[in-house]
Amino acid sequence: MSEVGAAQVLAISGGIGGAKLALGLYRVLGADELIVVANTGDDFEHLGLHVSPDVDTLMYTFAGINNRRTGWGREDETWTFMDALGQLGGETWFRLGDGDLATNVERTRRLKSGESLTGVTQDFTSRLGIHARLVPMTDDPVRTMVETIDGQRSFQHYFVKESCVPAVVAFRFDGAQSARLNPVFLEALNNPGLRVVVICPSNPFISIDPILAVPGVRNALIEWHGPVVAVSPIIGGRSIKGPTAKMMNELGLPATAGAVATHYGELIDGFVLDTTDSSQANNVEIPTLCTNTLMKNLEDRETLARDVLNFAEQLRQESGVV
Amino acid sequence: MSEVGAAQVLAISGGIGGAKLALGLYRVLGADELIVVANTGDDFEHLGLHVSPDVDTLMYTFAGINNRRTGWGREDETWTFMDALGQLGGETWFRLGDGDLATNVERTRRLKSGESLTGVTQDFTSRLGIHARLVPMTDDPVRTMVETIDGQRSFQHYFVKESCVPAVVAFRFDGAQSARLNPVFLEALNNPGLRVVVICPSNPFISIDPILAVPGVRNALIEWHGPVVAVSPIIGGRSIKGPTAKMMNELGLPATAGAVATHYGELIDGFVLDTTDSSQANNVEIPTLCTNTLMKNLEDRETLARDVLNFAEQLRQESGVV
Question: How far is B289 from B201, CA to CA, in rounded Å?
Answer without folding.
Answer: 14
